[in-house]
Amino acid sequence: MRFNKELDQIKTYEAGKPIELVVREFGVAPEDVVKLASNENPLGTSPRVAETIRAHADKAHLYPDDSMFELKEALSRRFGVPEETLIIGAGSDQILEFASRVKLNLSASVLMSRVTFAMYEIYARQQGATILRTEDWRHRPEQFIPMMEEHRPEIVYLCTPNNPTGDAMRREEVFEILDASDPETLVVVDGAYMEYAAAKDPDFALEPSELLEYPNALYLGTFSKAYGLGGMRVGYGIARPEIVRALMKLRPPFNITTLSLAAAITACGDNAFVEESIRLHREQIGRYEAYARERGFDYIESYTNFITWRFGEELDSSEVADALLRRGVIIRDLARYGLNALRITVGTAEQNDRLFAVMDEVLG
Amino acid sequence: MRFNKELDQIKTYEAGKPIELVVREFGVAPEDVVKLASNENPLGTSPRVAETIRAHADKAHLYPDDSMFELKEALSRRFGVPEETLIIGAGSDQILEFASRVKLNLSASVLMSRVTFAMYEIYARQQGATILRTEDWRHRPEQFIPMMEEHRPEIVYLCTPNNPTGDAMRREEVFEILDASDPETLVVVDGAYMEYAAAKDPDFALEPSELLEYPNALYLGTFSKAYGLGGMRVGYGIARPEIVRALMKLRPPFNITTLSLAAAITACGDNAFVEESIRLHREQIGRYEAYARERGFDYIESYTNFITWRFGEELDSSEVADALLRRGVIIRDLARYGLNALRITVGTAEQNDRLFAVMDEVLG
Fold it and tell me: Domains of chain A by range and CATH?
């Protein structure tokens, strides 16, 4: 059967290996598997959210309120933005997909950093668009701006903080790019890890309301990371109503589940959990920095809930990742991103203990 | 900002009005609102599923197993089909979207019945395809086949049982259309309500394994109706591996939630709940047929969990729907489908009592 030809170019996303697979493949006992590969919140699910889910468990047969009235109201209050600037997605991922589908086609192009979130390319390829990347893996305005001027891409992706490297853009760098952008170029500012950056250094913190000053900016946020709802698939986009109306044309009805909607509404009012997540992270990340220094390899200063260790010639990230996996520790190898590096979610004290112990074993 | 021009034609789906809205707009007490508008399972959530959800409530921070190994295994066993013929979607809706995106573009066309599930048209319009419809609201092979031969549509939609009319195609009618189809035409057989049809009359029951005989058939099923998981968004597609591989290219990672995956796995083994749902439905639907006869209006013989009442000139479906709504009873008016008819989910005995009492009030 014939299918649309732009599909030929699509690589599918490789998800972090599930714990069950490591148990099956390497015979590690499930309780000994530590997964630090998907940037899930090591604090777990907020007890308040878990209570909401239990209270709604017998409502699984009911469709959610498709207007998402209550969640939009909560987000509108939290960010001080009008409700018509909001769209809710099944993860901020889904809003990336909508953005790709409203702006891109076979003659379009997109611009992104050399190393950044894999879904930008995948969604752009689904539309048959041309992928342009800057030379550096850091987001550098001096590389973005000339390429924007030369190619007039339909979408520019700024992932700040950036996944999978963990670095972030300074506020003024983001605004520099926005100021230089063509109003027909959609500038996506993906703040999936923004809560961690904002808590670390206000120079790296962006408010969605500031981006609404620009007619062509789309801010993305998520409940998957600091809010601990990765498995529930809820994210949001904030942009001028003209953009939101276009994205809404592609939103399928009931795009988040009844339980996800209830969970996100509770999470919105659960700042204590976010603060505790950030506190745990700050307490633990120093250990990863110290371990790298001790072992003589590099790390990227992190503005996220994970850290990226960069190896020199003495170590091969794929070999280290594989050796860790066989011992039941799942992390993310960045070889396929062209980096000799590992991305590791900063876990609980116990999970991190385990990772360091297994690393010691592997490195000898 | 400019957007892809095919978006100009898109109408968005109108979801059934949520209970909260009726409370807000008409001042009806929440406990007095009866919603029979969205074909949700009146039995509620299966107690076994609710227990699974409660047991997984503290796993909301974890991404689901993206291979959906266990759910695919369960479906593979249930239908006697190989796992590589299966794809899981956020509702069968999402698989409709994938199908539309793999086959359609600005020069494509799709064929469907005059009155059928609204999302077929919406997803086709998102791709800019031309919409063709048969003259009759029933699915008639003698209307489908000549139009297929004339227009060679990229997709043909057979919704059986059909939503929003409730009628179904005989097995041999489906096979007649498949036999006459061009192998390049994807024939989508949407069996969202198949469990109800199969329980009523084997002449209307299709098995996915039979459709795998055809290189161009895609069967869709869902957990939203007989399995009572409407709010969890889980559906599935079954087709030849070549088709599944193409659809999989558009599946975003983690397209169903961690709790939805767990719920669907439990639901798969919960036949007692499905049987009880069907039993309740059969016990109650006769009351709707009798009420229509008593009041002198028509109904469409139903193979689903809802019934469609058709009015003659003496009644206007929009007026009746509105009068019911003001009294707190939410049903679906089919005026926008070109029918002077109401679609009503067959509820519990108590919900149906309420509907008949309010209808008596409205009709006088």
Answer: 5-45+272-363 (3.90.1150.10), 47-270 (3.40.640.10)
